[in-house]
Specification:
Blueprint lengths: L2 H9 L7 E7 L1 H18 L4 E5 L1 H11 L6 E5 H4 L6 H12 L6 E5 L8 H17 L6 E8 L5 H10 L2 E3 L5 E3 L5 H6 L14 E6 L3 H15 L3 H21 L3 E9 L8 E8 L21 H9 L2 E7 L2 E9 L3
Parallel strand pairs: 1-5, 1-6, 2-3, 2-4, 4-5
Antiparallel strand pairs: 6-7, 8-9, 9-10, 10-12, 11-12
Helix pairs in contact: 2-3, 6-7, 9-10, 10-11
């Protein structure tokens, strides 16, 4: 499906099309009103439902649904969605397991909450935009994404209107968003600015002969930082995948930079590793769509997203930048 065809397919209310809706609610009562209405409709229609929200909201929904809660599957967003890049494959797994494309299915996913850091919110908005691309050709899937207008900044709520073709507010009516930015925005290279690195990060040039030096540098820094041994191994493997991609697909060389910090309160104390090179990632779902058999070139970024707590990926005019974060307290 072409980008423009997918846009037309997704934006409207075509029967059987993927319906991506932002639920703009006010506080806990508004959350329950909007989500219970959505879930009870699905239960009445015998449609499989997956809810991915914070644990306290799962508990509130289960209590309100009573015995009907057994018809709904619940997952903790604070676990699955810490790295928003893991959410698209989680929804894909649900669709595959729940009955395939012929059976109507619905979900509720709330990736943004008030405590998210600025960097995390940016990646969540990117995720929401990419959902329109990832599921453009999936029929009979309805996804409701709650946004608390009393807890989130106005600009966050405004962006929800741009990343969702449909919006539901207090009256329960579903309306087309007047400012949906379209599927073309999701397909375009992602070049949102990254937080500046510290003035003097540790850095190391990468080439085919220096992959071992890069692994050693990450091992040494991660161990000194206090990551547990298994987390050190995960981070070294992730950086090795990125460095190898730079050598094989990024012009034969790249740059590794390391520093301590993290992406704000949502990440906490963490070790950051950034790999940049002269390559270009043109496929917007790289790292978020599970690679198929034989798709060797797509495996590296997929693995990185599975191993690391947080991943920021950019395609800039002069090349790629992938920044990975590993928390010490995970």
């Amino acid at each position: 499906m072409s980008v423009h065809a997918a846009h037309a397919h997704t934006h409207g209310n075509a029967r059987g099309a993927f319906r991506h809706e932002a639920l703009l609610y006010a506080g806990s009562d508004g959350f329950l009103t909007g989500t219970l209405r959505f879930l009870r409709e699905g239960i009445e229609r015998d449609e499989p439902s997956l809810v991915v929200v914070a644990p306290d909201k799962i508990a509130a929904l289960q209590e309100a649904l009573g015995d009907d809660a057994r018809h709904v599957r619940f997952e903790d967003m604070r676990g699955i969605g810490t790295n928003p890049a893991r959410l698209i494959p989680a929804w894909r797994d649900f669709l595959d397991e729940a009955g395939g494309s012929d059976r109507p299915m619905r979900g509720i996913g709330e990736p943004i909450w008030a405590e998210r850091s600025t960097e995390e919110v940016v990646e969540c908005h990117r995720h929401e935009s990419l959902m329109n691309l990832a599921f453009a050709d999936v029929a009979n899937f309805r996804l409701l994404c709650p946004y608390d207008t009393t807890a989130l900044a106005p600009e966050v709520v405004a962006e929800a209107r741009r990343t969702h073709p449909l919006v539901t507010e207090d009256d329960g009516d579903v309306r087309e968003s007047t400012c949906f930015h379209g599927i073309d925005a999701a397909a375009a290279p992602w070049s949102s600015p990254l937080r500046p690195a510290p003035a003097e990060p540790e850095q190391l040039a990468i080439d085919a002969s220096g992959l071992g030096l890069a692994r050693a540098a990450v091992t040494r820094r991660a161990t000194r930082f206090g990551l547990p041994p298994e987390r050190v191994e995960d981070l070294v493997l992730a950086v090795n995948e990125l460095a190898t991609n730079s050598v094989m697909h990024g012009g034969g060389r790249g740059m590794l930079r390391l520093w301590e910090g993290g992406a704000g309160a949502g990440i906490g104390r963490a070790l950051v590793c950034e790999v940049s090179d002269g390559g270009r990632i043109d496929e917007p779902l790289t790292g978020r769509a599970r690679p198929g058999d034989g798709e060797v070139g797509h495996f590296g970024l997929w693995l990185v997203n599975q191993l690391c707590d947080f991943v920021e990926q950019r395609t800039l005019p002069d090349g790629n930048v992938v920044r990975v974060t590993m928390r010490r307290d995970a």
